Amino acid sequence: MEIRDLSSYQGILVFGKMLPGGPAEGFLELLGEASRLKAQMTAPVRITAACLGSSMEAYLAPLFHHGADHVCYIDDSRLATYQPHRYTEGLFAIIQQVKPDIVLACASYEGGEVASAVAARLKTGLAAHSVSLKFVDGEFIQVVPAFAGKIYGDILCPDTRPRMSTIKEGMFQKLPKDITHTGTMERIKLPPCGFDERIELLSVEDEVQGTEKSLTEADFVIGGGLGIGGSDKWRFLEQLAEVTGAALGCTRPALDQHWVHNEKSMIGTSGVIVKPKLYLSVGISGAAHHVCGVNDAEVTIAINNDPNATIFSHADFGICEDWEKIIPLLIDKISMRKEG
Amino acid sequence: MKIIVCIKQVPDTNDVKIDPVTGTLIRQGVPSIINPDDLNALEQALRLKDSHKDVHVTVLCMGPPQADVAIRQAYAMGADKAILLSDRVFAGSDTWATATILAAAIRRIGDFDIIFCGRQAIDGDTAQVGPEIAEFLDIPQITYVRDLVIKGSTVRAERMVEDGHMVIEAPMPVLLTAIKELNKPRYPRMQLIYKAYSPEADIVAWNNGDIDADLTQIGVKNSPTNVKKSFVPVKEKHCIELTGTSRAIATGLVDELKKLHII
Predict the structure, then answer these.
(1) Structural domain count, chain B
(2) Which of A38, A212, A255, B40 could hold A264 in an S-S bridge, CB 3.0 to 4.6 Å?
């Protein structure tokens, strides 16, 4: 690996998604984490928010209010819809302009692939799906999960800059809004995009079924696993979710059984990370990759008829019973309570 | 049409056990499999071979000598050629260095229209190697492909994005990454399993002498990232067991829901 002049790379750059009305929640969360890192660094650090999109200038203010000192952005009609080759050129141009020491990018489908392509081009390291970032004795450590969260690794990127990480939405907390916090804006141009004449975008279709959003935002999340035992029985969970206003998610095995059709209902490291007030796990054994997605629940209750299920060591309350003896009763009780 | 499918041999994640003291993997007795998403990539390549004339499928696998079984399995599923890319100098490569090596091997193969990878491997879940290879080869990429149609020298792919999907057309050569929704991989055929272990099978082993990847860019020493240590996350809680009749438990749950202001 070639050694570059590392000291010429300074500050933290955060790359997140701009939605039509403003920055995505995950963008603000990464700014929050950048601010916490900034507090650990001795030299003065500037936090830059990198934005790609079209007609978004009016919506950039929240980035400052949540920790950005600087916004470097490309506003171009060609960026109205995500296209990997254009976004790669855009992010690459912003990084060349800002020369950050650390880059945090949202580990969405889009963010992950753009970060990969940019890291390849920058000849630098990219830690995937970091769950923790910290300085220990001056060393920047990016903690990543492997083997579906069964094992974690401390990743270093000693000789190249920037040091890049992707982070899933829901992993970190955003800062409280501070409308007095302001910063500087810098607009740059989108460079020519190599494959533009060759790649044609024919259509874009939204498939949001409401599930994902509500899973990440719900106060009460119910998760169902293989122990539910059939798509006809899955309806009990749907019913419980309905009467309690809960969001319903599932594990990989339940998804593989086609009891649930939306892949984005899957809770875990390779799915959605939830942090509700209450997580009710039903018929879930507690595989590491699932548990990693629910660790931030304030209270976890697990129902499983296997006393040795791993899920119990991650739960505050455990019920070792057939769920079919409990859930229908619970639905009745809550329904009666509502009617009464 | 020439298709190169990149596959990786991985330990079956479900069976992986971790030594809680050393924080390392216990490999003994853990079965190795072809990474699931890579099987979807291979399956799609084989379907193109089944439905189009003159399709040639090469499987490329970087790994230790033991990965030989993976490329023979891929061959037995119907690939025309399989290459095991194995060399001590590759060991410990991170995603950047791995993509560098695979791109060098692909350049050595030379003639290709589609590079097909799985979306991500179940050991690291990074989803980085595919996009990095595309970047190194300077070809367009379409990731998270769940449907694919070939039209002359163009691919039309339906790709997943965070909130839905897009339909994209790109000319070959192009790099695609497959997700499990793309297809259901076939099983190896008995007849081809025999052939895969016979001398007539077009299965070769390459080392770095064959592909000439830049030694200053690969392996554990030249990877941009390195793993300082690995450890087992400790997140155990003290679990209070709720017991009693079903009715009592259900009442307890209702109380808990009330306490948390959920109902």
Answers:
(1) 1
(2) A212
